[in-house]
Amino acid sequence: MPIEAKSLNEECGLFGIWNQKHAAYLTYDGLHALQHRGQEGAGIVANQNGHLKRHKGLGLLTHVFNKPEYLESLPGKAALGHVRYSTAGSHGIENIQPMMFTGIHAYPFALAHNGNLTNAKTLRKQLTDDGQTFKASSDSEILGKLIENNPKPNFIDRLKDSLNQIRGGFAFILMTPDSMIAALDPNGFRPLVIGKRDDGSTIICSETCALDQVHAKYVRDVEPGEIVIVNDDGIKSEKFTDNTELSVCSMEYIYFSRPDSVIRGVSVSRARHRMGQILAKEQPTPNADVVMAVPNSSFEAAIGYSTASGIPFDMGLVKNQYVARTFIEPTQSEREHGVRMKLSVVRPAVEGKNIVLVDDSIVRGTTSKYIVRLLKANGAKSVNVRIASPVLKFPCFYGIDIRTADELIGAHYSVDGIRKQIESDSLGYLSVNGLTKAIGHLSNNQYNGLCTAYFDGNYPTKLYDYQKEFDEEAKDLGLYKGMKA
Ligand code: SF4
């Protein structure tokens, strides 16, 4: 995970399993492998003969399930789990998922969501005007409300109708009394995979690392616009829309997903390695003595840079993994204090060296400046920062918690301006083409199957409730200036 506390955070990890004795135990293990996707809260719903029961709480998974009786109290052969990081909604327990619904059909179901809806405000208003009340402030509750109030007699029809009303980035898993159902938005922004265990159980989860954790074999990715229905009759696939265009979030490869995960056939670790290799070609550093990584998410890119440039790699920075977390939105000084607590320097590796410092991204720039100063205070001759992704200058509306460009240093300064701000001797970024090349073309569509909107403002969908605000900000900050139309 990045050093900058709460700088770029993603909303949530999902794990569901069907046909497994006491399924909640394996769900716990699967969620453990997805903890990097959200540390704010966790929950599991178990399905025992059609009866849904839940335990959830705030904090890390181990904290929420810190007594054996919590998992013991969730028997049943199917379960659905969620780890949360909030991008929309407050930090209260009411926002912790899975959420549970019943509605006019008196048909209970649980729902877990990863992503962000771009028309949540409009839908929430419509539903509220219709007399609906919301328990939570996150947009995840909206799909549940739409389903539970849809008049169609069949649950899948209600779900399809509802999915066709929401917009944005979403991966959902639902648990009903007789099925586990997954759905992915028409662009497939967030990863969602299907796996099988030798004992016959079926798993659907956010990343393949969770399949590995529970000894399941990868079967395939869920497709954009697809609904996957798993029950005692087997697995069935349906579409809620054919109007799809794959554009997987490139940030999943750059930094969100675990390096041992594979998204749409591309290893996250190898993609990061290639980002570093291409970065070394695009942004060489003559006369450097050593390549170093900002731990931990930049290791592969730094090793890639070292391999391609021939400059040796060394560990100059060490991360303390055991820093206590805070769930309160940190102020800038708390953030800096957090970085100080997390990072230390191996002085003999740094002293007297011209350093290439590889990082995965620069968000606000305050952490980069702190690290540059730290390395110089430990005797570095020069610090040349190389970023294994393009300049981050646009907000994300599909599930990452940066909704305004104002927070991004790249929206305010040129590359040289950023260099001055972070006080490095030089600064170079990977190009958007380099990034796409490193990940590979996932599709022949206009996006090559990838969303790179964070970097080039090329949003694969309309922004609905956010469009007006974004257009104004883009104009004010001149975000598209000098860019290809
Ligand atoms: S805008 Fe950025 S973070 Fe958001 S989905 Fe696209 S690439 Fe991912």
From TrEMBL:
Record-listed E.C. numbers: 2.4.2.14
Binding site for Mg(2+): 297, 359-360
Swiss-Prot/TrEMBL cofactor(s): Mg(2+)
Gene Ontology annotations of biological process type: 'de novo' IMP biosynthetic process; purine nucleobase biosynthetic process
Keyword match Metal-binding: yes
Short name of any one Pfam family annotated for the protein: GATase_7
EC main group: transferase
Key word Membrane present: no
Recorded catalytic activity of this chain's protein: 5-phospho-beta-D-ribosylamine + L-glutamate + diphosphate = 5-phospho-alpha-D-ribose 1-diphosphate + L-glutamine + H2O
Keywords: Glutamine amidotransferase, Glycosyltransferase, Magnesium, Metal-binding, Purine biosynthesis, Transferase
Catalytic residues, chain numbering: 12 (nucleophile)
Pathway: Purine metabolism; IMP biosynthesis via de novo pathway; N(1)-(5-phospho-D-ribosyl)glycinamide from 5-phospho-alpha-D-ribose 1-diphosphate: step 1/2
Family statement drawn from the similarity comment of this UniProt entry: In the C-terminal section; belongs to the purine/pyrimidine phosphoribosyltransferase family.
PANTHER family: AMIDOPHOSPHORIBOSYLTRANSFERASE
Known function: Catalyzes the formation of phosphoribosylamine from phosphoribosylpyrophosphate (PRPP) and glutamine.
Protein name in the entry: Amidophosphoribosyltransferase
Species annotation: Philodulcilactobacillus myokoensis
Lineage summary: Bacteria, Bacillati, Bacillota, Bacilli, Lactobacillales
